[in-house]
Amino acid sequence: MLWCDQAMFGQGTYELSADLKIEAGKVTAVIGPSGSGKSTLLGGIAGFHPQHSGRVLWKDADITLLPPQNRPVSMLFQDNNLFPHLTVMQNVGLAVSSRLRLTVPQRDRVNAILDRVGLGGLGDRLPAALSGGQQSRAALARALLQDREIMLMDEPFSALGPGLKAEMLDLSVELAKAAGRTVIMVTHDPADAARVADAVIGVAPGIAFAPAVTSQFLRDPPEAFKDYLG
Ligand SMILES: Nc1ncnc2c1ncn2[C@@H]1O[C@H](COP(=O)(O)OP(=O)(O)OP(=O)(O)O)[C@@H](O)[C@H]1O
């Protein structure tokens, strides 16, 4: 379980309170109006933003003071964060080694994950020679290969068309679940939550609410989200 224990996350002058528990091994969607603090919540869990008070615990271990690289967290961003001058193999390989010359076993691991995300044979390409969807697949491969227990997704597929977005969401959740990951994903689209999420965290300005079962949240949303969900 990931426990935000009376946590107060900051982003500049903005503060978001989160006092909630997220079940391990499940998919939890984070929904709320623009600017309410969804990215602040993910950034706080990842350790990117300062935490003003409270604690964050993962499986009973206090990770509040750990820097991002030491947290059990990988993150998928909207812009994919691929290095333009590195090949797909090198970009994905960064998950296992900071050296660009990978060992044979490391290359085998990268090739295996590239196959799984549908990029088999494209390891020598630069990101610019991939389509938007293929770039998303490369970023997904890197996040999966990082082998961290929690995968945070901050609308990584929002720039893709609706069909491709749904396909990538399904693929990410399928592979993350197969790897036993806990997925926490920001989305603006209730249909995404209905499609893949076990639970929903509603974020209203300044506060992230405890997760609710997805079907219940969408059928009868808390007052603060009725206008937003329409
Ligand atoms: N450096 C900063 N200083 C002050 N306020 C900030 C800073 N960065 C972000 N904010 C504010 O923090 C609030 C939460 O931002 P955040 O990006 O977490 O919202 P969000 O729900 O993810 O939004 P969106 O859906 O539009 O991506 C916003 O109101 C934003 O204006």
UniProtKB/TrEMBL annotation:
Key word DNA repair present: no
Pfam families named in the record: ABC_tran (PF00005)
InterPro entries cross-referenced by the UniProt entry: AAA+_ATPase, ABC_SmlMolc_Importer, ABC_transporter-like_ATP-bd, ABC_transporter-like_CS, P-loop_NTPase
Record organism: Octadecabacter dasysiphoniae
UniProt KW keywords: ATP-binding, Cell inner membrane, Cell membrane, Membrane, Nucleotide-binding, Translocase, Transport
Keyword Nucleotide-binding attributed: yes
GO molecular function, one term: ATP binding
PROSITE patterns noted in UniProt: ABC_TRANSPORTER_1, ABC_TRANSPORTER_2
Segments forming domain ABC transporter: 2-230
Protein name (record): ATP-binding cassette domain-containing protein
Domain of life: Bacteria
